[in-house]
């Protein structure tokens, strides 16, 4: 050993044998802020069931037609076709004849299905893709009437009209349509002598019913306005829905198992049982947020009525798309819900347009605002795509909700005071020891969610998260 290599002190490697380490509690990467659970107003449900009473809807809103694919070929069922409100006043046998006579037409991106003033009226259903409907404004500009996506339809009331179309229908994507051609329609008319009278009677009945209800399909309340004397005051009443929807509390359960030897001997510096319970509770709450969004019975995505589902125009979420969403839930909207990558895609579109959104803090978490409404990040809104990557490339949804019972919005449901409760509506119970000395603890969470009115939730569909702008190309063009 050289003179300069003489050991002058105990080495750090040797010293560590006499030292302890500073430890952290177990970390879990799947834990998120779960802002949805904090922002929802929670209603106590003592009976375990929550009933939402509504006024009676005299005229239901149009529902989408379910499109199914068989070896890549789209089709729809006769039962789904009968959901069209106008056809509820027509003989079922005639509706069946109509459903059978649709043919498939493919229209490429940017192509026209109907041209205003040139083509005749066409009744069509979007089987795949998206279509925009335009009409000329008073100043000659193109005004967009609607953006239709899969399962939506147009032109059912005008199929017997001899006039040229007053709208232009263009395909925003490569699209497939079901159309009822004039030739097939003439064959139906010839086969059913009273078809025109039957159809016109149905149109008149539908228009009459529409005149008696408001925009939500509820019956108008008869009122008298004015200063004239000796007027007869109208009599009225408000009818209620005969079969109101009821929500039972959903249950999340798991059994946490800890060996008594572990909980007896290895509790320093962290209690083994407490850490096992803490991490299990975190997992339960993560799943609770997922269920509130995706559950097929009460989740936000599945509680949205068809009339409150809209699609992005270009795929990437733009300020125009979120403004359109706000126009649907305009009565004191509470917050948006979006995947972090959807929020990033929206911010890219804002940057591209030069309108960067404002940021605020909620519960210590930075949150983007749009028109003063916070966009809450959550990874429970899934990205559905063809690429299995951790980055998540594909399409997702953005939800907008109004919350609170007084606002006729969305509320969370739970029951406080259950046996073994360790936090609101969450209980932990010792189930006992098995013959191996393992203790089992039952964790149970009771909760649900209810939408009090249809206009409390709206969703933006087909939100692409993988599009990026080429800023260098833009700068070169501007120069």
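^ Assign residues to that structure.
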């Amino acid at each position: 050993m050289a003179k300069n290599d003489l050991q002058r002190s105990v080495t750090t490697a040797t010293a560590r044998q006499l030292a302890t380490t500073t430890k952290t509690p177990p970390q879990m990467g799947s834990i998120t802020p779960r802002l949805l659970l904090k922002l929802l107003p929670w209603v106590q449900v003592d009976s375990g069931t929550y009933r939402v009473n509504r006024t009676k809807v005299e005229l239901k809103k149009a529902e989408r037609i379910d499109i199914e694919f068989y070896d890549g070929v789209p089709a729809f069922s006769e039962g789904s076709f009968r959901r069209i409100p106008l056809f509820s006043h027509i003989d079922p046998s005639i509706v069946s004849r109509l459903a059978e006579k649709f043919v498939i037409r493919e229209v490429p991106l940017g192509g026209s299905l109907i041209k205003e003033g040139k083509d005749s009226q066409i009744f069509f259903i979007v089987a795949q893709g998206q279509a925009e409907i335009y009409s000329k404004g008073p100043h000659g500009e193109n005004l967009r009437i609607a953006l239709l996506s899969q399962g939506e339809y147009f032109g059912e009331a005008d199929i017997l009209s001899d006039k040229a179309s007053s709208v232009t229908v263009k395909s925003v994507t490569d699209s497939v349509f079901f159309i009822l051609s004039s030739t097939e329609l003439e064959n139906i008319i010839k086969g059913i002598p009273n078809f025109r009278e039957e159809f016109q009677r149905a149109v008149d009945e539908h228009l009459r019913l529409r005149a008696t209800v408001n925009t939500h399909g509820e019956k108008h309340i008869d009122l008298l306005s004015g200063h004239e004397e000796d007027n007869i005051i109208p009599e009225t009443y408000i009818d209620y829905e005969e079969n109101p929807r009821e929500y039972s509390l959903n249950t999340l359960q798991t059994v946490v198992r800890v060996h008594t030897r572990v909980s007896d001997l290895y509790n320093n510096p962290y209690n083994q049982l407490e850490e096992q319970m803490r991490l299990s509770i975190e997992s339960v709450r993560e799943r609770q947020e997922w269920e509130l969004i995706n559950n097929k019975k009460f989740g936000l995505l599945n509680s949205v009525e068809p009339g409150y589902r809209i699609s992005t125009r270009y795929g990437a979420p733009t300020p125009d798309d979120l403004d359109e969403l706000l126009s649907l839930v305009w009565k004191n909207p509470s917050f948006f819900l979006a995947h972090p990558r959807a929020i990033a895609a929206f911010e890219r579109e804002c940057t591209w347009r030069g309108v960067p959104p404002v940021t605020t803090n909620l519960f210590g978490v930075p949150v983007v605002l749009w028109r003063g409404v916070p966009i809450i990040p959550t990874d429970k809104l899934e990205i559905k795509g063809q690429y299995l990557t951790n980055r998540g490339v594909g399409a997702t949804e953005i939800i907008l909700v109004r919350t609170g019972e007084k606002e006729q919005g969305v509320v969370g449901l739970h029951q406080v005071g259950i046996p073994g409760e360790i936090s609101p509506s969450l209980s932990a119970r010792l189930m006992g020891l098995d013959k191996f000395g393992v203790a089992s603890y039952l964790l149970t969470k009771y909760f649900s969610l209810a939408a009090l009115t249809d206009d409390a939730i709206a969703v933006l569909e087909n939100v692409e998260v993988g599009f990026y702008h080429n800023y260098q190309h833009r700068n070169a063009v501007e120069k």
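The radius of gyration is 30 Å.
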